[in-house]
Design goal:
The chain has 189 residues and is an all-alpha fold. It contains seven helices and no strands. α1 crosses α5, α2 crosses α3 and α4 packs parallel to α7. The longest helix has 45 residues. The termini are far apart. One of its GO terms (cellular component) is plasma membrane. It is a multi-pass membrane protein.
Length: 189
């Protein structure tokens, strides 16, 4: 009989807590559960913060959180689960970054904490109280950690980069439109 140690119990608690919170947030986006807006409402929000198309962005974000969180809680495909959740949280942190660090001011603290916890679990592994352990770590090999985190980082960089470029262009266009409107008002007087 195998004796579980403090590390296994600690990883189980960390996986259940982090994965459960992520899965709940993803369920809000995907299914409208727990007072969430579902795909339609989340898609509208995503559009408003520069992630377009909104419904596609809502689906991707919801799957990263719900799927990644559920898999983290189960300790299954831990490298991919942690990477997906971390990528989703990096995208969320980008939206909150202009408000600073602290969540009470609308900052990125919460998203960063969940993303770092998911990354830490992906790197440390799920422990022996996990489905990955039961399945002989077929979906949790050492080489999978850098690959999954690298793919998630690259994908997140592309999506966030496109969003940031779009936001800059809209800000420039909005500034030019206001300037032109002001000039037109001068000529009308």
């Amino acid at each position: 009989m195998t004796c579980y140690d403090r590390r296994d119990l600690g990883l189980l608690l960390l996986r259940l807590g982090t994965g459960g919170v992520l899965a709940a947030h993803g369920a809000q986006k995907l299914f409208g559960w727990f007072g969430g807006a579902g795909i339609e409402g989340t898609g509208q929000f995503m559009e408003s913060v520069g992630y377009r198309p909104g419904k596609v962005s809502a689906t991707a974000s919801g799957l990263a959180e719900w799927g990644g969180g559920t898999l983290l809680a189960l300790g299954l495909a831990t490298p991919a689960a942690g990477a997906a959740a971390a990528g989703g949280m990096a995208g969320a942190a980008t939206v909150h970054a202009p408000s600073g660090f602290f969540a009470q001011e609308g900052g990125y603290e919460y998203a960063a904490t969940l993303g770092l916890a998911a990354t830490g679990i992906a790197v440390a592994g799920p422990g022996r109280l996990s489905l990955d352990h039961v399945l002989g770590h077929r979906l949790d090999r050492g080489w999978m950690v850098p690959v999954a985190l690298g793919v998630a980082a690259a994908g997140t960089a592309v999506v966030v980069g496109m969003r940031n470029r779009r936001m800059r262009q809209e800000a420039e266009t909005g500034g030019r439109d206001a300037q032109l409107a002001g000039q037109e008002a001068l000529f009308e007087e």
